[in-house]
């Protein structure tokens, strides 16, 4: 709109349709301001939409990551407990064998 207005002014050599140069400047400035505001609101809408989407994705990936980490910790604890009980069973077996040896040496 502004460029057409300027071309018309150049062709005719003066203000278009009786508007003064000051009025033309106000109209051009307002049109530029309006276009800038429209771009800003468009960018804000896009940012808002992307922020919502990315926030949801971030939350989902964070939950997935925390869930994996939790599962790994649980597996680690289970393995340690299993190893602990196996070690205790092995120690009890050694003590039983030693006890049997002592009893056999006493009775013989």
Question: Can you walk me through this structure?
Answer:
By secondary structure, this protein is an all-alpha fold. The chain has one domain. It has two helices and no strands. The chain is rod-shaped. The model has no long low-confidence stretch (mean pLDDT 80).
A few lines on this structure:
The protein is mainly α. It contains two helices and no strands. It has one domain (2-107).
What's the structural blueprint in terms of helices and strands?
Blueprint: H1 2-12, H2 21-107
Summarize this structure as a short list of keywords or feature phrases.
mainly alpha; single chain
Q: Could you spell the SSE succession in H and E letters?
A: HH
Strand content: under 5%
- Helix/strand/pairing category: mainly alpha
Q: List the total number of helices.
A: 2
Please estimate the helix content.
over 70%
Cα distance, first to last residue?
117 Å
Give start-end ranges of low-pLDDT stretches.
none
What's the total count of β strands? 0
Inertia-based shape: rod-shaped
- Biggest sheet layout: none
Average predicted confidence as pLDDT = 80
Number of domains in the coordinates?
1
The Cα radius of gyration reads: 42 Å
